[in-house]
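ugh ok fine here u go
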Amino acid sequence: MKRALFAVAAVALVAASAAYATKPGSGSSTGTARVFAPNPVQDLGIQTLTDQKDAASAVPAAAYHSVTLTDLDGSGYLSGKWAVVRSQTGAPAYSPTNAFVYDRQQDQFEQVMAYYWITEAQRYIQSLGFGSKRPPVNMRPQAVRINQWGADNSFATDKQDEIRFGKGGVDDAEDAEVILHEYGHAIHDGSGFVFGSEEAGAISEGFGDYWAVDFSDVVAKRMGVPELEPLPCVMDWDATSYTSTVPHCLRRLDTNLHYPADLDGEVHDDGRIWSRALWDIHETVKNPMADTIILKGQIGFMGKTMTDLANSTISTAQSLYGSSVAAKVRAAFHARGIV
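structure:
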């Protein structure tokens, strides 16, 4: 959760597309759409953007990017192999030709954002070998509800294996980094990660922040989208509604905090220690190795402390890529005082 909740268990998903069987489907697994990549502030470098009650005119047209939607089930709705959008705020996005082109004034735009970014994240994870030569990581349709949490907050829940995105200010699903942060909790939930302590919760918050910046960077580079604000700034667009400092950041990945001295018992605060270590791995080891190590190292984590998972991650780096890479991973955790 971007504020205070996190996923703790997995429940099987029952696909929602059957509810709309009365309308003709596209019969195609691909579609077209427009999205933010990852958000207008990061993309355009304009820190003065504000929500203006969801007005389309509040965001320049240059912030929208045409993309291909993949893995759709052909129903004409945003339902597919890796994401199933359920929404009671506004009509569900529907197209008999799989053309999902909206702007931010329309509720359906947030539905498209959630479908696209979650699907792309899962496809990226699989491209690293998870689900083939490595164990799967949340390799299932992820249920999503848009604006189902009637406040400016979002969370992943174990009750229905869902991610729910809130509204208020910039609606959460307008910022891909909010979507990816919550999907980070689902990644933990879908890889046997056990939330057995406050530190485990902090690890999940830190990983969610890291994943938000890391994967949005992967996609921005793939699309050739400029990244004009500091990359370590998390949720630049969503944060404009309740931060006054510039750049607008909900949190950052580059704080100089140390374990255990700077632990304060609040998972989002403490998660910044973990996210900084992951960011340093990202910067020294580089992708795709960095993400492969980080994702594989946390599968089945049942420990209690950051040190527990750091040691597992170092061992994973050693087994996958050898001593020189493992030394870089160890150095990142050592710099934070975790090992």
